[in-house]
Amino acid sequence: MKRKVFLSLRYPAAILLFILAAVLSKYGGGYPSFVIFLLLMALETVLVYIEDSNIIDLRLLLSISWLFGIALSSLKLSELQSPWSTAMWFSVGGFYFLFMGGFDLISWFLKKRAPKRKPEQSIRKNRRNPVFLRAVFSAVLILTAVGLLAFILECFILKFRVPIFLDWSYAAYSIFHVTGLHYFVVALVLVPPLSVYFLSLGRPAKWGYLILILCNGLSLLIPFMLLSKMQMLLTLALPVLAFLVIQEKIPKPVILAGTVIFGFLVFGVFLILMRYKNYPEGYLENVFRFRNRETSLTVQYPYIYIVNNYENLNLLTINLQRHSYGIRELFPFFALTGLKFLPRVQELMALEQYTTIPELTTLTMLYHVYGDFGVPGTMLFGLLLGGVAALVTDISFRRKTASGVLLYVQMAFYMALSFFTTWFSDATTWFYFIVTGAIAVYIRLYCRSNSRRGQRKTARAFSKTEE
């Protein structure tokens, strides 16, 4: 009973803490606001973990990412930052609490509808199915082959102007891009989590291990050659998340140690990529514009990497004259269908993007939603996304199919980096979803085709025996 009362006070207490921190931040109380937001983040993550005991719960990941980003932003350590508008506070707060509410509402509905529903042991069942094993393995091979072929074609088309071999340019990655073809290159990020799923089914032959090492090596090497921090991060993070989804019972010390090691690994990769980008001396300091110029770049870089996205959203809330009513969020449809090349569509998409400086163009998950529908849009988006997250969680953890695991790890990554970009109005995100669906269809058709072939062989053998 005490636990129910405690949990029922969660939303009122969290909302009051958020309002208090927002008011303090708006009127110059940066450090007190920072502390209160950290307290709110700790409260939310602990309550979610107590409820579900899942280290990669989508609510937990969003709470850490979203609230920690807001907390850092309240410190105002850079000259790029400015006080947030009232619309900005309503957007970031309303989105967060309605996401949590939408998740809890759909989860409650699913539990009420099927309270005794047990997880389907898909992985255990598929371990005994050699046809399914071959289907997943061949999916890894096809995905790698298509991505590698697309990369080679891009190299030919762009005359081998691979970013790692070029002189410095902050736009080096965007230069290496062939419309349509590049989607298949970046889809290589799905190879490592699919490989982890395959290995969870059983141990392949020695040649199988060698092929998997080659496939995963290529999926890591190509983003490194493109100097793409986001693709590298996806390639490293998705297999770790897939492992955590598949393995139900992992000792907490192992999770903690793994998280620390993974954090150092990612940080090291980012430092290496910064080194290969060959920034001119003093360039980053002038871009980040820290009030204290003596602050180390190892602090400046992650700080600006997080907070400037919120600042770009804040500029939009201050300067936007009229909303675009769905045009921004329809970009994935225009891009993936090729409609974006039509003059009329290009006119519609010619919307001003507000950023603090030209070099820092990343945005939060809410940027295009606010641009389309304002504060009501961000709140409705939070509610819908929370409901979808609850459905994905139920499907992925109950069935643990290849596509279910792939879908969940993508959602987990987007929640963990909710501060970084628009994600769900990005064509690449939807291409990943399409590829995930294609993998599910391929595996099902492969298994169905081979099972029928086996049945026909059995029938022939039976008829010969009768003769």
- Please, what is the oligomeric state? single chain
Major sheet summary line: none
Q: Spans of 5+ residues with little confidence (pLDDT < 50)? A: 457-467
Beta strand %: under 5%
Number of helices: 20
DSSP helix fraction: over 70%
Strand tally is: 0
What's the Cα radius of gyration?
Answer: 24 Å
What would your notes on this structure say?
This protein has a domain of 226 residues. α2 packs antiparallel against α3. It is 73% helix and 0% strand. With 467 residues, it is an all-alpha fold. The longest helix is centred in the C-terminal third of the chain and has 40 residues.
Task: Sum up the structure in keywords.
467 residues, mainly alpha, 0% strand, disordered C terminus
Topology:
Blueprint: H1 2-8, H2 10-26, H3 30-52, H4 58-73, H5 86-113, H6 122-127, H7 130-157, H8 172-175, H9 182-186, H10 191-201, H11 206-225, H12 229-246, H13 252-276, H14 283-288, H15 297-319, H16 331-337, H17 343-349, H18 367-399, H19 402-416, H20 427-466
Short note summarizing the structure:
The chain is an all-alpha fold and 467 residues long. It contains 20 helices and no strands.
